[in-house]
Amino acid sequence: MAATARSSANYRIYVLGGLLFLWCCVICLRLVYLQIFRYGDFEQRAQHQQQRTIDVSPKRGIIYDRGGHELAMSMLVDSGFAVPTEIPDLPNAISLISRITREDPRVVLADCRARKTFCWVARKGDTQTIRRIRDLNLQGIHYQKEAKRFYPNGELAAQVLGYVGTDDEGLSGIEREYDDQLHGKPGEMLISVDARKKWFGRVEKQPEPGENIVLTIDENIQYLAERELKQAIHDTHAIAGTLIVENPRTGEILGLANWPTFNPNVRKEITPEALKNRAVSDVYEPGSTFKVVTVSAALEEKLTRPDEVFDCQMGSIVINGMRIRDHKPFGLLPVSGIIANSSDVGAIKIALRLGEGRFYKYVRAFGFGQQTGIELPGETRGLAKPVNRWSKVSIAAISMGQEIGISPLQLVGMVSTIANDGTWVAPRIVAVTTAPQSTPQTVVFHPVSERRVISTLTAAEMKEMMQGVVLHGTGRKAILEGYSAAGKTGTAQKLDTATGTYSRTKYVASFAGFAPINNPAVTVAVILDSAIGPHQGGQIAAPVFQRLAQQVLEYLHVPHDVELPPSRQVLLAERHVKDEDLAESSPDHLGGSLDGAETSPPEHVLSRSIVLSAKPSPSLPGKVVSAALRRKEAAPTSASSAVSGPKPIPTRYAAAGSVPAALPAAGTVVLEVEPGGIEVPSFVGKTVRAAIESAQDARLELDIIGSGIAQSQVPAAGSHVAAGSRIVVHFER
Length: 733
Prior knowledge:
By secondary structure, the protein is α+β, with helices and mostly antiparallel strands. Helix content is 35%, strand content 21%. The strands form 9 sheets. Strands 2, 3, 4, 5, 8 and 16 form a 6-stranded mixed β-sheet that branches. 44% of the residues are buried.
């Protein structure tokens, strides 16, 4: 009995021992499974709960001007972040901090609750903001050094430089175009939280700084350009403006100013309108500045010469039934006078002699309708439709700067081509990118591409004629002290979006020129948009050129090439001219609007044909006119006039109306429009806009009196009038 009881006890012990052994085996197997086979998974879970890797911003590369002055740089600042697990009252802490940073506390709180171990609460704050947060002495708020972009000159070259976002990503300008080179490679910092909810961090990977960029911009010239543009905006009340200074020999952009502008250090105040770099992205009709292309193309093709006289027909010409008038009733003008006085009729006649194909070839050769390749984002190609899409009036419209869209950068490139003896050089604003290093470096700028557009002889002739614009033409307010200068004024109507027609009150005024004449050091282009009051290029843009070019030439120590007058009053007298004497824009507009430049006008607008005659008028043989002009120009000139500029236009041909319009010069293209009348449509009962559209369809012009609905008209509906006639329509509400 005792043996049986002992045997039963041993059995129970063995069974219990076996169960314990089996249980231990299961536990061991489970531990092996968890510790070995599931180790990686659990390690990732633990790291996700206790650790977080954040990027450490690299030091962004420095942007220098051509003299080595910092235009954009990065500085180490404190960034505040929170470890939510350490903060007893998270909502209250975030609320206190947000009052200082002016961020939305709900957004910050949601971010902290989602991340748990780490969230930014004051990223790259200024010194005062970080100090105020430190003074709160909040538990769980810590600080990390980060690189913050800083622009030491504030608004200077803002559209060129651009700005960066919170994470140092380039958002506009050079900062965006060269973001990959400037940004560098970010480092990594590991944030860990232990069992006591204490955090500690260590840098796992050091950030690598970005490359530096050297611009062709000169900090001082840029300042002068922005100062003069700001003054011009104040004086003219223009809504916007652009000013470009370029080295015509190399294509280096020395200064590029836009208005309105912004301070890239204050991102919250940046507006889309101020952010726009108008120098590369704006498209506008150039107006009379485009006559440089028209005349230089004809000279290059040997279809005319500077002293050839054209009959400007008392400032009126009819193209395909559409009348275009000069701002003054010019009679006979030499080609140099057409440029100096900015005659639209003269430019049209030169373009008709040139022909569509050859004209378009030079439009493209001067760089229009294509990007220049400058290192700035958002560059436009402009609007230059091919010849097969030209209407019957396109050649006339384009010859005087209508029905073609260009950018200010393309304008300065055109004038620089003349200054550079006929060679177009691609404009550039980035000289070189360099590796980050502290030692000064010398970099050499090399032009990227160039091409010959016109011969040196043609360029020399154009220089002389463009100097005439400044000395006795529409650009007299651009005369410099001690330097010769050449240029061309331009005034273009803007499209009125309300009526769909060209405005008679809003214009784009421009002047583009270079100095000195024989060895140009700078080309300057000035564009002012929608000035109030005086709005002609010679009235408001030429004086800006004069002030800026004078300062830039003196700053660059360019030697004087013109003898200074004994008295400053003499120079001021040369610049003093009545505003009405500097007018140039035609009251008429040929062809379609710029917005519709890629489409042809309706077929009925093109139905009239043109008969071209290149025969000299029998009333005065061409050789007589030419001989008279040669005799006049053969008069001896003084040494001073040879230095200061070209011979003045003979008075007998320069004076408006001094020669009857019925006396064309030799080789002048005379347009004879087929006879016939146009039936006047009824405008009664129509709105102003509907009446304008009907008048355009009928090739008539409208004189609008009043507003509202048309009540009467003169001539009456059904009458027959010549194309381009004016119809007076009375509107009442």
